Fold this sequence. Notes:
With 85 residues, this protein is of the alpha+beta class. The chain is flat. It has helices at 9-18, 51-64; strands at residues 25-29, 36-41, 77-79, 82-84. It is built from 2 helices and 4 strands; from the N terminus they run H-E-E-H-E-E. It has a 4-stranded mixed sheet with strand order 1-2-3-4, with no helix packed on it.
Amino acid sequence: LWQTMSHTNEGQTYITRYKVxxxxxxxxxxxxxxxxxxxxxxxxxxxxLTAEQFVEIxxxxxxxxxxxKLPMAARHAxxxxxxxx
Length: 85
């Protein structure tokens, strides 16, 4: 778990590297490769990301990925449970 403010040097580096376009922003990044594997950003009170939804998304993600195995070549990443790219 890592958190920073967008106006810091680290925050600006992250925003640029991972092309952040909205806030709030959550992401899962492979610590071995730096690859963005999943992201959710820009939700609001009208269409919130609930704790229950995040638990379901995180559980599904963890059942499909393992950091115990060697990283695979990047084929796709996930955003809101939908593949990126």
